[in-house]
Design brief:
The protein has a single domain, classed as Spore Coat Polysaccharide Biosynthesis Protein SpsA, Chain A, CATH 3.90.550. 26% of the residues lie in helices and 21% in strands. It has five helices and ten strands. The strands form three sheets. Strands 5-4-1-6-9 form a five-stranded mixed sheet, sandwiched between helices. The chain has a three-stranded mixed sheet with strand order 8-7-10, covered by helices on one side. Strand 4, helix 2 and strand 5 (75-78) form a beta-alpha-beta unit. The longest helix is centred in the middle third of the chain and has 13 residues, at 116-128.
Amino acid sequence: MVNVYPEACSVSAVVLSAGASSRMGRPKQLLRINGRSLVAKAVETFLAAGLREIIVVTGRFRKEVETEVENLAAMCVFNPLPDSDMIDSARIGLRKVSAVATACMFLPVDCALVSPETVKGMISIHEAIPGKAIRPYSGRKGGHPLLVPRAFFRRLVSVGSLREVYGSPDELIDMRCGDKWAFLDLDTYEDYEKAVWSTCRHGGLGR
């Protein structure tokens, strides 16, 4: 389903779901936790946080991913580059972000279990301080999603990774965050099995 852009859109979201999942050994976008695929969970997290413009970048498993989100309010856009990096998908997704968006949140599908509360917290900071990038932070570790303000959109054309979008520490806000899922990348099947065990043990996502 293609979502209808609202007249007054604040923060948009791009779910980065084009990877080949080489380390996982199977399409991580389609792995299920509590009956829902990771890509569907990512979209649902943004919807639960109140976002209304959500773009899913597909790639190697295009048809399967599109099927997973076809009944959700999200737009799918295809990345035709088979060996591209995450930043390439970010650029492709950004092209579909509406002109009225004040910022865009980029979420790798690896981190699909991040909570809506974490997303809401980042949006609240953005509304108060609109000119800076924002990420969840715990200890010495940065997490996902990364919120990029419109003032930095042009930088995505030339940088080599999303981390290079903010040019200096002064351009980044580290939001203290206790959401463990904001810092967990599901890179391997062992990571996935641990996440399944954790969610079952805690009767949900264990947040």
